[in-house]
Amino acid sequence: MSEKKPHRTLDDYQTTTNTTANTMSETESESVANRSEIVFVTDAQDCNPNGNPMGENRPRIDPVTQTAAITDVRLKRYLRDQLEADGHPIFVKKTGDGVEVRAALALDLFDEIETTDDLDQIEDVRSEFLGRATDVRYFGATLSFNKDPENDLYQAVKEEFPSQFTGPVQFSPARSLNAVETNEETSMLTSVIATQKDKEQGGFGLDDHRIKYGIFPFHGLIDEHGAADTSLTEDDVERLDTLCWRALKNQTISRSKVGQEPRLYVRAEYATDGYHVGDLHNGFVLDDEMSKPDAELRSVRDVCLDVTDLVETLESVANDGHLETVHIAASDRLSVTCDESTIESADEIANELSDRGVPVEEIDVYDEFEQTLPAQ
């Protein structure tokens, strides 16, 4: 039985300075050998996990099922922001995304390039770009620079890149396991202000659309063949094991996003080339007997996740010889059930899998993430 590690909730680390001065490629470790499938369970309490800009920034809610959705784009933004906070240079930043900006963003990763002659001095611009653009190695990027740029350097950069890199790491949008309730009591807030001129008080309405509670299983895939196209490495994949957890902890602290937490991260690393289950995230349902009705869900204490299908699927895949290792991080605050077992919280899933003969590696996020930071 694997040793149970304590659950930690505080992210007490110091970020490093983001710099592109170091021209050493980060892609010198071994390339990805195995395909991986990811399930990442998060929840959201009294917040707007993913507003729809086309719908007054209201939470994305299916009108038929009343389940909420979080897009893969939203999750990737958290991950990119955490990479940047950790000091990893990234390409897709929070700026405008016009074609001129994209060319400039590419050059931002090359402090030493100011002229076309400087560009010519780099032997393999494509490889050097991937070595520096950490987010592109994971998620790819569109490189649609100006068709007819006035800037000669932009034109030279355009000629060095393909039109896009297809990312080997992809996530599907997550749909809540429960029908969500909206927080009508906070749908309109009034803020009182005083003017400098006459100190009179006035008010203005502030749209504040939130859900009361939702629990979301994301599904992800790491394609070992696509990894070769962006030079994704084993070190990059190991970084993802701690990055997802910490991104939800650290990048959801704005007023409308605070209230989201990571609850369970599972990365099934497969031994068979080209193999993956395909819908591992569908191995979760709410335990109706142990959970409150959907209309009464308000926090993680009101839900209990039935992980029977997930555990039995991983056990079956391991018995068939397709599974290399299950990498797992989990919270003891999420209650779970599993048929014919006594586990009561998500942090006991690793022990249950190990008892069934499944090779497991428990991830200690806060002990391991420092190993994934850029070299000083």
Describe this structure in words.
The strands form six sheets. The chain has a six-stranded mixed sheet, with helices on both faces. 38% of the residues are buried. It starts with 35 loop residues before the first strand and ends in an 8-residue tail after the last helix. It is globular, with a radius of gyration of 23 Å. Helix content is 26%, strand content 24%. The chain has two domains: 30-47 and 217-376, no CATH class; 79-166, no CATH class. With 376 residues, the chain is of the alpha+beta class.
Brief description of this entry?
The chain is α+β, with helices and mostly antiparallel strands and 376 residues long.
Furnish the topology, listing elements before pairings.
Layout: E1 36-47, E2 51-52, E3 58-59, E4 67-70, H1 72-85, H2 99-108, H3 116-120, H4 125-132, H5 134-139, E5 140-142, H6 152-160, E6 164-166, E7 169-172, E8 174-179, E9 188-194, E10 201-207, E11 211-222, H7 227-230, H8 234-250, E12 260-270, E13 285-286, E14 304-306, H9 308-319, E15 323-330, E16 335-337, H10 349-355, E17 360-362, H11 365-368
Parallel strand pairs: 14-16, 15-17
Antiparallel strand pairs: 1-11, 1-12, 2-3, 4-8, 5-6, 7-11, 9-10, 12-15, 13-14
Helix pairs in contact: 1-8
Major pleated sheet: 6 strands, mixed
Total count of strands: 17
Mean pLDDT: 85
Strand proportion: 15-25%
| Tally of separate helices | 11
Number of domains in the coordinates? 2
Terminal-residue CA separation: 37 Å
Task: Report the radius of gyration as a whole number of Å.
Answer: 23 Å
Alpha-beta classification = alpha+beta
In order across it, which strands form the biggest sheet? 7-11-1-12-15-17
Indicate the overall shape.
Answer: globular
Helical content stands at 25-40%
Oligomer: single chain
Ranges where pLDDT stays below 50 over 5 or more residues in a row are 1-27, 187-195, 200-205
- Which sequence of SSEs, written as H and E, runs from N to C? EEEEHHHHHEHEEEEEEHHEEEHEEHEH
